[in-house]
Design a protein that fits this description.
- The protein has a single domain, classed as SecB-like (Bacterial Protein-export protein SecB, Roll).
- By secondary structure, it is an alpha+beta fold.
- It starts with 8 loop residues before the first strand and ends in a 6-residue tail after the last helix.
- The chain is globular, with a radius of gyration of 22 Å.
- Helix 1 crosses helix 2.
Length: 172
């Protein structure tokens, strides 16, 4: 039988929960997502038509996350794609696509993987579309980025950080 003397508990979204519902289960909610920075350079615009040479495309992706107030976290997905033919730059697209996520019910020691794996996984399809649209609107075929394994990226980042800590410092 429930204890009637306990006041109802409010959850982080303001709804009232009974005493047996207050143990929060893990939840990730998107509060908002947005283009934080976008640049498309097309230095030889118009010259790409009639050129059958396939460009070399270099793509880089990184993720940053930082806590805000009240379980909110801003995650930034940085994507850069540079297309060249020989030494000539065809296009360069740089995007910082971000989102604010309300993350609840996750222990502090388990929060980092959620912020750096799960949140970018949610943002990626939207960022991918923006990159594809920029390339297409610049007169090139849409650049369709392959899916990204954010878990592998996270593990690489952790491994590099561990290696940097275990490596002895050089003294001059």
């Amino acid at each position: 039988m429930p204890n009637k003397s306990e006041p109802p508990q409010k959850s982080s979204d303001g709804t009232v929960a009974s005493a047996d519902q207050t143990s929060e289960r893990p939840q990730i909610r998107v509060r908002g997502q947005y283009v934080k920075d976008l640049s498309f350079e097309n230095p030889n615009a118009g010259k790409q038509f009639g050129n059958d040479s396939a460009p070399k495309i270099d793509i880089s992706v990184s993720v940053n996350g930082r806590g805000q107030s009240d379980n909110n976290h801003e995650i930034e997905l940085h994507i850069s794609a540079k297309a060249t033919v020989g030494e000539e730059l065809k296009f360069l697209v740089e995007l910082v696509y971000a989102g604010v996520f309300a993350i609840t019910g996750i222990p502090t020691d388990k929060l980092e993987p959620v912020v750096l794996i799960e949140c970018p996984r949610i943002l990626f399809p939207f960022a991918r579309r923006i990159v594809a649209d920029c390339c297409r609107d610049g007169g090139y075929p849409a650049l369709m980025l392959e899916p990204i394994d954010f878990a592998q990226m996270y593990m690489q980042r952790k491994s590099q950080a561990r290696d940097a800590q275990t490596r002895p410092e050089k003294t001059n």
